[in-house]
Amino acid sequence: MFAVMQVETDERREFRRKMRTKCEFVCKYCQRRFTKPYNLMIHERTHKDDITYTCEVCGKTFKRQDNLKQHRTIHSPSCNRPFGYAWRF
Ligand SMILES: [Zn+2]
Ligand SMILES: [Zn+2]
To answer: Between β-strands 61-62 and 53-54, what pairing exists: parallel, antiparallel or unpaired?
Structure first.
């Protein structure tokens, strides 16, 4: 009884292993394949990092839109004051 149960779990484990290898997650940017969705998620993030935001005033590039927004304030002095005020918190 006990031995049968052990065989069963081994089979189930093997089945799960096969399922996992069959299940492929493909990157929509470069078609690279991953067995785990987590790995694909991490990988796809590297593609998103390639997107750069360019300041139309001085041409400086930023990886994040909020970084560009923050940078833009140096070109408009009127925006500087409330931003500097926010830094106090
Ligand atoms: Zn990719
Ligand atoms: Zn700029």
So the answer is: antiparallel
Whole-model pTM above 0.70?
Answer: no
Query: Residue 71: nearest ligand to its CA?
Result: 2
Q: State the distance from the centre of ligand 2 to the C-alpha of 52, rounded, in angstroms.
A: 13
Q: What 3-state DSSP class applies to 8? A: helix
> Is there a contact between 32 and 24 (Cβ–Cβ < 8 Å)?
no
pLDDT in tens, 1-26: 555 556 668 888 877 776 655 668 99
Collapsing DSSP to helix, strand or coil, 86 comes out as: helix
Q: Which residue has the tokens 């399922």?
A: 19
Ligand nearest the Cα of residue 29 is 1
